[in-house]
Amino acid sequence: MSTIRTACVTGAAQGIGRAIALRLAADGCNIAVGDLPAQKALLDELVDQIQSKYGVRSVAVAADVTDEAAVDNLIATTVQHLGGLDVMVANAGVATLGNILDTSIAEMERVHAVNVKGTFICLKAAATAMIAQG
């Protein structure tokens, strides 16, 4: 087994996810980065930065973490392009700011879908890949 680890980070186009991806790359990990399709250009820029600055391999995949097929594709692409998966950072998340009395059920369901369901989908897909690779 190679000593180079491969990590996948969701919500990586900006903020904490981007910082995590850059830190893992600085530590020598190959990195798969995922975020919403609307963020693909930012993901591609991040891949370029990771590869040029840290000399590790990286791949960007547009994936909505609430979509199981999209997450399965993210993990499959990670394994295919980077040779496996060792670390899964299910970072994607959303928040609704404001008074609970002003928060709609639809807003609450969106937060739950991304933060709870999305984390579950990511970790299940990652665990499946990790078990398959031994």
Automatic annotation (TrEMBL):
Gene Ontology terms for molecular function: oxidoreductase activity
Keywords, sorted A to Z: Oxidoreductase
Entry superkingdom: Eukaryota
InterPro entries, A to Z: NAD(P)-bd_dom_sf (IPR036291), SDR_fam (IPR002347)
SUPFAM superfamilies documented for this protein: NAD(P)-binding Rossmann-fold domains
PANTHER family: 5-KETO-D-GLUCONATE 5-REDUCTASE, SHORT-CHAIN TYPE DEHYDROGENASE_REDUCTASE-RELATED
Protein name as it appears in the record: Uncharacterized protein
Family to which the UniProt record says this protein belongs: Belongs to the short-chain dehydrogenases/reductases (SDR) family.
